[in-house]
Amino acid sequence: MHEPVLRRAFAPMCSYWRQAVTQVGAVAVVGIGLTACSGSGVGLDANGMPLTSSSGGSGSSGGSVPLSADFDSIQDNVFTPICSVCHIGADAPEGLILDAQHSYSLLVDVSSTEVPSLLRVDPGNPSASYLVQKLEGIAAVGGQMPLGEPPLPASTIAFITQWITDGAQPGASSTLDAFAVASVAPEDGAALAQPPPQIVLSFTHELDATSVNAQSVRLELAPQAGTVPSPGAAPSPGAAPSPGAALLGAAPLLAGQAVASATAEPDRQPVLIMTSARVPAADPRAVLLAPLAPLQPGRYRVVLSAQPGTQLTSLDGQLLSGGPLNDEGDRTVATFSVDRLATP
Fold first, then answer.
1. Mean pLDDT for the chain?
2. Residues 161 and 182 in one domain
């Protein structure tokens, strides 16, 4: 047969085999891909996602891609899969809980416990933010974070730095309709080895800062067998603020005194603890409640007033909702215990 005739005769067969070989090759490639993504998990991060250049090949950025300079992305890629492995629950180092429920309120515009002159995240000022210093390994106290693990890639830290430079804005998560408590740190039921330097309350709406005062937000020593109030301690509720006792940008100080230890009559009323309270400028959904002296061993409760005229209100005028009332007709939003005195 002539060559043109042969080409015409075999053309359909050649086309068939080219298609078959292509399909077999594709199946082989898919098989190789499945093998790489199963079994030992090599090549996957902690969430089962393939490692990418954003993780520096080590998994240290920890999360699904892409990582970007916004809080939700940083939470999903860094804080949740990497940091909250240690920074979780009542035993979180330095009281810094970095799960999605607590992290923003405990980071932004909150003083570091290791270096109180620095904010953990200072909006607009990444070089002075203690978080960045810890991640870069240049902090004055302690080791580089994540402790005992490979450092985060420079590209990951750059995203965090840019987020802070841009003002450390909160995430885009939708706000619940009701004005309610979103989280409290220390968490309810926590047993603390050391007294917390402050209590952080996070809410679902921005607060009317003028409603944050000595009556609306309180820290009390809970009634229990074995507590005797120290001289000058004031029972709760109804204690009047100390004359002129007010801090710039903070609630008036309570006319109470931190109690000494645990030895009292079981029917004694709660004892107010001297505190200052403020709504941080960078996080108008939070209240920072700081005892003026280290808390002594004992059981404490964080109380929000439910009395007319002394309730917390949101910026859009809502009254706080949710949660049962205690014996005094107020809301106890968290109870925690302190086991021993602060280490000098």
1. 74
2. no
Largest CA distance in the chain: 118
Range of the domain at 215: 176-344
Q: What is the pLDDT of residues 111-160, one digit of tens each?
A: 998 999 999 999 999 999 999 999 999 999 999 999 999 999 999 999 99
Q: Are 241 and 255 in contact (CB under 8 A)?
A: yes
Q: Which amino acid is at 146?
A: P
Residue 41 falls inside a structural domain: no
Q: How many domains does the chain have?
A: 3
Q: Are residues 158 and 233 in the same domain?
A: no
71 forms beta bridges with none
Say whether both 297 and 274 belong to one domain.
yes
How distant, in Å, are the alpha carbons of 52, 246, 340 from that of 243?
60, 9, 32
pLDDT in tens, 63-90: 445 799 999 999 999 999 999 999 998 7
Residue the block writes with tokens 């645990």: 262
What is the CA angle 252-90-202, rounded to 5?
A: 45
Of 117, 5, 113, the closest CA to residue 342 belongs to: 113
- Same-domain pairing of 94 and 215: no
Residues 246 and 335 both lie in one domain: yes
Report residue 258 CA to chain centroid gap.
27
Nearest Cα to Cα of residue 289 among 211, 212, 203: 212
Q: Can you give the C-alpha Rg of the chain in angstroms?
A: 28
Q: What is the CATH number of the domain that holds 263?
A: 2.60.40.1220
Q: Which residue's entry shows tokens 């970007």? A: 68
